[in-house]
Sequence to fold (286 residues):
Amino acid sequence: MRLLALCLVFFATCLNAGDLPHAVKVMSFNIRFGTAKDGANAWEKRRYLVAETLQLSAPDIFGLQESIDFQTEWLAEQLPEYQYVGTSREVEPGAGEGVPVFFRKSRFELIEAGDFWLSETPEERGSMGWDAACPRIVTWARLKDRQRDGSELLFVSTHFDHKGKLAKENSAKLLRSRLDEWMAEHQRVIVVGDFNCTPDSQPYQTLLGVSGDSPLVDSFRSANPKVTTELSTLTRWSGEYLGRRIDWVLNGSGFSAMSSVIDRTQDAGRYPSDHYPVTAVLRYAE
Fold:
């Protein structure tokens, strides 16, 4: 493997949940949309690095953001051990970015999957909400874990708007409402995404609460309680380390975080995306 993995905790990065009973390794990864005019960082020049980052980390389940159909399909070819679900956020399927969910076929069985839009009309395909700059979508998959005698979990991937303040706040309210419904049905929930917000923002407080009043937990903060400086999940193609942590892995009370890291995999100064992936190993709560 030609990659150099730079991580906070080597053990946490290399840990495969498949080697542990009753744990699952998950990832959130904004791979940067493949039609961007990124010059030396264009998709064709870094796509193998994206695939190798995923292969190196070997998550059991992962959610992508900014993945256009041709990127999703190419990664599916490189990672045949995974199955994926998801659709474009636009009116026409395949016409734009999506937030697909990939899961390891040998471990999980798909029960059902779906999508909804972060808007006033969430079931309307391609609908754009509030002051958002573009349509935003949520993709979810309900999975049966063969490794745990058929236990079920709900895995959610999303991407909040990058401009609209009201859109971010209302997206958090809508997502929290859906999550509350799912968790009221005793669903074990994991949420990943690029939220375009930092942990001091109102959307973060809406999702996670301000005084322990939410069943959702930020796995990174839970697993790294001594981290006081905000670490960046944006590479900006240069390996930025401190800054804005806007990519999160959240878990419901059905899980507890064993470890969580910002994966700083690179190859001689080239990064797979303008975002770092975030991984977490989550233990099932009894």
